[in-house]
Amino acid sequence: MSTLVAAVGRFQMDALARATLEAAGADRDAGGWGVAYCYGNRLETIRSALPCAQDPDFGKVHELRTDMALVCVGGMTPASPRELKPYLRRETGHAWTFAHSGIVKHEDRLDTAGRITDSKNPSEKYFLYLLGKLEERAPVESLASAMAALGDEDSLSFCLMCAEMMLVGCWHGDAPESVEPLWSGEGGLAKYFSTKPLHSLPEVQWETMPNRTVLAITRTRRELP
Q: How far, CA to CA in Å, does 79 sit from each of 82, 115, 119, 147, 163?
């Protein structure tokens, strides 16, 4: 399992990176890491197969200035850089990036409509499945319907973003052992989503997202600090 953290609005990337490392715990010493962020009207990524605690390039994350970002730490043993999260794909005129915090049990149900994955990870296939189901005029409804169609999957929480919007889905089973909530928080002019509360951001108030919901946040470009 990897640690997934996303933020939209006016926030300090340095504080977000430090909070992510703290929440990641042992994940920061195991597997690779990646970050996707908006720069102007572009979606950029930095990814590495090295554990972030041992990778001097992770210092670049602290220096970024952005108003929308997705960070993934740990849980990756890629054979090539293209297999690192967040995954990246161009579709419908946009560059999209994606991270999934759980495990897909029934990979055979993921119809990618002919899209070819770069890895053998079912999470990437899940990404392509959602892209194929996404309707930009009704993003929340189309993705909620796509997840419901997968039946008894109990670990489908995700973050999907392009340079114009971020979509966040919380989807887990009802049995106590399958509950892996996604957390949401607000502080100042920013919204946050994470697999774990980021307690080192004291200004943010955290709560678990309602199960089986999808949120869409349209990006508002801000003057960056």
A: 8, 20, 8, 28, 28
